[in-house]
Amino acid sequence: MQPTSHPTVILGGGFVGLFTALHLSHQRYSHPIILIDQSDRFSFKPLLYELLSGELHSHQVYPRYQEILSGTQVEFVQDKVRSIDLHQQWVATASGQKFNYHNLVLALGSKTNFFDTPGAMQYAMPLTSGAEAIALRKHLRYCLHLALQATDPERRRVLLTFAVLGAGPAGIELACTLGDLLPIWYSDLGGDPDEIEIVLVNRSDDILKGDINSHLRCTVQRSLKSRAIPVTLLFNAAVQAVQPDGVEYRKHDMPHFLKAGTIVWTAGTAPNPLLMDLPISP
Question: How far, in Å, CA of 114 to CA of 125, rounded?
Answer without folding.
Answer: 11
